[in-house]
Design goal:
mainly alpha
Length: about 170
């Protein structure tokens, strides 16, 4: 696998972990968006955390393909929820409405994950196995990119909406 695909693959893996943990903590938003109960959302969230953690820690091609399919599903669900003009609850009960950015971000992450699946995915073990300066730089970059990606899904749509109304 190209080393260039490792950071986005790890970010995509960890992002579903973050989303899953936040839905476990506060499932009501996703339950409302999906017209289901909190227990169903929590079960799906456990699956997100398990898949994301497995991809981050011990990735295989099959797991990477599964993660790419999940991101494809997220992109499709985002389009449906955007048309309904509702909050998705993707990151817990934050009340952020779904935007085109959700779908674009999910499709982009899914494409990067699929490329990693084809090339042979590498996870955190590969990152931490690099010489200390490179491992530190990669880890810092991954953490920053993960935070920025969460902001793309949560804060950016609201900020963009405020800008459009002015």
């Amino acid at each position: 696998m190209s080393a260039a695909l490792v950071p986005p693959f790890v970010v995509a893996s960890l992002l579903v972990c973050v989303a899953g943990v936040l839905k476990l903590r506060a499932p009501a938003g996703a339950a409302a968006a999906l017209h289901t109960g909190p227990s169903v959302v929590r079960a799906l969230a456990v699956g997100e955390v398990a898949l994301g953690a497995a991809c981050a820690v011990h990735p295989t091609r099959a797991l990477a393909v599964a993660l790419a399919l999940v991101y494809g599903l997220f992109a499709g669900v985002a389009v449906v929820l955007m048309r309904r003009r509702v909050a998705c609850g993707c990151f817990g009960d934050n009340g952020f409405s779904v935007s085109a950015g959700h779908s674009i971000a999910s499709a982009t992450l899914g494409t990067l994950v699929l490329a990693a699946a084809v090339a042979g995915p590498r996870g955190l073990g590969w990152v931490l196995g690099q010489p200390a300066p490179q491992a530190a730089a990669l880890s810092t970059g991954i953490a920053g990119a993960l935070y920025a990606t969460v902001l793309v899904y949560t804060v950016a749509p609201r900020a963009w909406g405020a800008w459009e109304r002015t």
